[in-house]
Design a protein that fits this description.
- The complex is a heterodimer of chains A (about 240) and B (about 100).
- Chain A is an all-alpha fold and about 240 residues long.
- Chain A has helices at about 1-35, 40-50, 50-65, 70-80, 80-90, 100-105, 110-115, 125-155, 155-160, 165-180, 180-200, 200-205, 210-230.
- In chain A, about 80% of the residues lie in helices and about 0% in strands.
- The radius of gyration of chain A is 19 Å and the shape is globular.
- The two termini of chain A are about 30 Å apart.
- Chain B has a domain at about 30-100.
- Chain B is about 80% helix and about 0% strand.
- In chain B, helix 4 packs antiparallel against helix 5 (about 80-100).
- Chain B is elongated, with a radius of gyration of 20 Å.
- The chains are: A mainly alpha (about 240), B mainly alpha (about 100).
- Chains A and B meet through helix 1, helix 2, helix 3, helix 4 and helix 5 of A and helix 1, helix 2, helix 4 and helix 5 of B.
Chain lengths: ~240, ~100
């Protein structure tokens, strides 16, 4: 009975997330189509990964025909934040929670589902996460598949416009925290500058794939920030 | 030519491992300050690196891309939702490229 209550609550809270996912996934699907994926492949890729930045980075690797190890490394680095979220959630669930439930919750750790799951009162009931996942995952995967289909049909002007949607979403994730935190602000500016240099220096652009550039820049910049400006305990909990 | 399904399998398994390992194995908080800080900064840095300069080269014209960047930064800064920022960036690109056709 308790599980049923939490499942329904999860479903309800998951609906706005699903709608947002659907729209954002459209642009991810368009990128997937450009990289040569079919709608079916896009559906499988997004439905099994549930990651915007991770999905986009993965598609970049496929588009540039990077190696399998490069794909593995890219996923490891680009999705590293889920490691932190998973750590945080491990404090939020009852110690009695079975391994199977832990695995199922883990599959659904996205920025948004993590966000709603980590603020429920008391221990997180796994069925709350399942409720949110029930609507959010199909929203995400079907949006991406539709994007891959429309990518073939829509006129170039519309495609060009929709292509920036995913970057708009990335900006909406990183800019608000930068307002509160000067180190994040500085880190974003440094990232922009170095990324621009990497992109435009022929010696780097011609020899290092774009996926590998993302890994190198992320590790170097984030590690420098961590050493120069280690965060206090509370900051890293969010 | 690499197989798309192997790429997808690597993506799915790696991401799942990242999500599942801490939740199933680590029962205590991470104590290492540098590691905690690194994990804290990673999302911002990686998203920033992927956004710029890619956003200005993603559209038919570099100027509509720059406009999308400015729109995204300003709207995010004043607190517009994720969905609102994404849609607005798209609309700005569409309108600017439409105008450029007539100039």
């Amino acid at each position: 009975m308790d599980n049923k209550f939490w499942y329904k609550k999860g479903l309800k809270d998951g609906i706005p997330i699903a709608l947002g996912y659907f729209a954002v996934a459209l642009t991810l699907g368009i990128a997937a189509e450009k990289a040569g994926l079919t709608a079916f492949q896009t559906f499988i890729a997004t439905g099994t990964t549930l990651a915007s930045a991770g999905g986009y980075a993965g598609i970049n690797v496929i588009a540039s025909m990077g190696g399998y190890f490069e794909m593995f490394l890219t996923m490891l680095i680009v999705n590293a934040r889920y490691l932190l979220m998973s750590c945080a959630l491990s404090q939020k669930i009852s110690p009695k929670t079975s391994t199977l439930h832990r695995m199922a919750i883990a599959f659904g750790i996205t920025d948004e589902i993590f966000g709603i799951s980590s603020v429920v009162s008391g221990y997180l009931n796994p069925f709350y996460s399942y409720g949110a996942m029930t609507v959010a995952i199909p929203g995400w995967a079907s949006g991406a598949a539709l994007g891959a289909i429309l990518g073939n049909i829509l006129p170039a002007s519309v495609m060009s416009a929709l292509g920036v949607g995913i970057f708009g979403m990335f900006l909406a994730i990183i800019i608000p925290p930068a307002k509160e935190n000067k180190v994040i602000m500085g880190g974003i500016i440094a990232s922009f500058v170095l990324s621009f240099l990497f992109y435009n220096l022929p010696i780097i652009a011609n020899n290092i794939s774009s996926g590998m550039q993302v890994i190198i820049l992320t590790v170097v910049i984030a590690l420098s920030l961590a050493i120069l400006f280690p965060v206090k305990e509370e900051d890293a909990d969010e | 030519m690499n197989n798309v399904y192997i790429y997808i399998l690597i993506m799915a398994l790696t991401i799942f491992a990242i999500r599942v390992l801490p939740l199933t194995l680590i029962r205590k908080k991470i104590k290492n300050k540098i590691l905690r800080s690194f994990l804290f900064y990673v999302p911002y840095v990686t998203l920033a690196v992927m956004t710029f300069p890619a956003i200005i080269y993603a559209t038919s014209s570099i100027w509509s891309g720059v406009a999308a960047l400015i729109t995204g930064v300003v709207l995010s800064y004043i607190g517009v939702s994720l969905f609102g920022v994404a849609v607005s960036s798209c609309v700005v690109v569409f309108v600017i490229e439409l105008i450029m056709k007539f100039i």
